[in-house]
Specification:
Order of helices and strands: EHEHHHEHEHHHHHHH
Strand order of the largest sheet: 1-4-3-2
Radius of gyration: 20 Å
Low-confidence stretches: 287-308
Mean pLDDT: 87
Largest sheet: 4 strands, parallel
Shape: globular
Amino acid sequence: MVHDEDDDKAFMDWALAAHAPAAGRITVHPAPAPAVPAALAHDLLRALGKRLPWAGSEEGTCWMRDTRTAWRAVVAWVQALEIGHVLLTRAHLVTAAHLTRLFALAHLTGIRLTLVCHGPLAPAAAAAVESLRPVRVYTLTAARRIVPAAPVGPVPGRFPWWEPAPFPPPADEACLPPPGHSPLPDEHLGAVARRLHSRIAHPAHAAALAAQVMTSRSLEHIISLPPSAFTSTAVPVWAAGLIEAGRRFRDLDGRADSRRLFHLTGWDRIAVEEAALACGLGADHPPPPDGMPDSRHAPPRGAEDDRT
């Protein structure tokens, strides 16, 4: 736990510079006043380079409002993308409820947590933190010692999912055939994989599209396939993280022994179709709404679901 008692900009600069997804470390900069129960999960997804749906139907975007689903998505991505360290800035503004879910994430995944506090914690949040008996540091020198600079350079054997596709999509971005119709040329696979990683926050939806692109088969066919069709030897490097995220998401729902990798509801299928369009697969990109609102400032329609 890093205490920045004077709210020194140098502490924030250090924390933001520590963001190094290729090295398994991300920095989360949360909303100042989370407006929805899943807000911190949304912030984590953004730190992982995932964009929440910015256009689409109620059916295709409703999962964002469900706290349990949003946190399952975070867990699946953290595990699949081999994240081992999360720094949280402005931790003194995060509620005890959100911190409790963050601690549950750490317990489940084994990640290391570093909380950066620029002011005093609220009593309930302080009690939640104290229960973990954190190591505390109070100087920037000590903070740099416990969180050193991350190595730079390529990571052998891994697809660089941390290199984002442009967003919003540029007007001249190539729109490719819909998934499941014909094989994509090899020269397009890297760009498509970056779009899937950057523009789809739901692990099962991203994995389903990756499977379609990988096999050139329909969504219905993909849903019928057993997990054995997606072994490490059968999945190309560009799709490995996406398929693994889908597998982790399924397992978190208690379906580890299922005969199918994908369990998609009707709403999920709509979301997959809309995600394909957002990734330029099948048609022109849907126009983003003015101002690109996100869930922290313009919550989706409907009541918030705060199930735990």
